[in-house]
């Protein structure tokens, strides 16, 4: 890899550039309108990167079909369900609350806090949908 003036990149810059390129192409797979084009993009991704980054391609292909499950749902839901961000945020909020409490006296109190964290999250989303419809 070279700079615009044909000077070679430093190794760490070349590595960063390659990581950016492979990540960008991987993200584009999930921008496909349906499962079939996504699988076609995967095949192109493999062709483009197999020789340069065989380990990365192998890891990316592992259980790949499971990452396309969101295509089985209505298109309007795709951006919400194709990542685990929402779930990770719920668990982070629960951990924060449980750290504030310290130790739960019994399982029911733990489940109650978990339920309340989820209820609060649902209330946030309900407010957003009401605001959109107003």
Automatic annotation (TrEMBL):
This is Mutator family transposase. One of its GO terms (biological process) is DNA transposition. Required for the transposition of the insertion element. The keyword DNA-binding applies. GO terms for molecular function: DNA binding; transposase activity. It comes from the Bacteria. InterPro entries: Transposase_mutator (IPR001207). The keyword DNA-binding applies. Belongs to the transposase mutator family. Keywords: DNA recombination, DNA-binding, Transposable element, Transposition. It holds the Pfam family Transposase_mut. The lineage of its organism: Bacteria, Bacillati, Cyanobacteriota, Cyanophyceae, Leptolyngbyales.
């Amino acid at each position: 890899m070279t700079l615009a003036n044909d000077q070679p990149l430093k190794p760490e810059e070349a590595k960063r550039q390659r990581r950016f390129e492979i990540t960008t192409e991987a993200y584009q797979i999930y921008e496909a309108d349906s499962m079939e084009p996504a699988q076609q993009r995967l095949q192109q991704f493999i062709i483009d990167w197999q020789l340069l980054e065989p380990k990365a391609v192998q890891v990316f292909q592992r259980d790949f079909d499971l990452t396309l499950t969101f295509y089985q749902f209505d298109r309007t839901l795709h951006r919400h369900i194709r990542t685990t961000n929402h779930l990770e945020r719920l668990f982070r909020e629960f951990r924060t609350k449980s750290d504030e409490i310290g130790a739960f006296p019994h399982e029911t109190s733990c489940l109650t806090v978990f339920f309340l964290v989820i209820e609060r999250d649902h209330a946030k989303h309900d407010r957003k949908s009401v605001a959109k419809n107003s």
